[in-house]
């Protein structure tokens, strides 16, 4: 009787414990502990989340669609911010010379800047990871060709390459497609000179991992090269890539703003933050300071929060600082 009673307990004790969920493992990880102990990282993450949330909810929370030219009213132009004596509701941050609500334009423009920045980093990361793995794993003439192309791109100023790509695309496309494809062209122009950094970083890690015993053993049992690169080499290259991608996200947003400020980015009827700053800069000395100041503050907040997260991530993933 005692054996039958204790049998279920013995079977349960012999079974391995249930594997914790990913959320549980995240809460118990060193990375989450480092994040909770880093006030500036918490502040930056909260600020970036607030900016992204308001940007993507802009159609629901803004009083005006700044991209709808039919909704703009010229008699509501050049209204100062609400705390000014001549301010009017619902234009909390005032309006520009076309009657466009500045707050609405900032939120819509932030959405464009975030999308272009994220998409350009994702494209450059994909190309850089692929080419870096191939160059580091195979070596030889393949490595030389890929790295020499990267050296050529690095020898040229980043902004000149982006301007050249956007200029060629604008001259090649029909007039009706220029504004429609403005965002994809910007994404491609920012990503082309950016993939080299990821490729060089991954190549260095891949060359070290490719000479280790477990990779040599995988080759001996004839595991396919792409499986070795994805399953064995790539996971050991992700730490520096994550830090570089986070920091380059802020640089990509600044690059988009720079190109739009120079007039080769987003068109005035689809303004990003750079376009808003370019338009407002024309009226800076005429007393309409709010047209340029508030988009500039928004751009600074986004880049500052991304850079603070990148600095924390670099310290958190550095084993020498643990």
TrEMBL record:
GO terms for cellular component: plasma membrane. Pfam families: BPD_transp_1 (PF00528), OppC_N (PF12911). It comes from Pseudooceanicola algae. GO terms for biological process: transmembrane transport. Its main location: membrane. PROSITE patterns: ABC_TM1. The keyword rRNA-binding does not apply. The keyword Ribosomal protein does not apply. This is Dipeptide transport system permease protein DppC. It is a multi-pass membrane protein. Keywords: Cell membrane, Membrane, Transmembrane, Transmembrane helix, Transport. It is found in: Cell membrane. It comes from the Bacteria. Belongs to the binding-protein-dependent transport system permease family. The gene is dppC_1. Signal peptide: none annotated. The chain crosses the membrane at residues 41-61, 112-140, 152-174, 180-198, 237-263, 283-304.
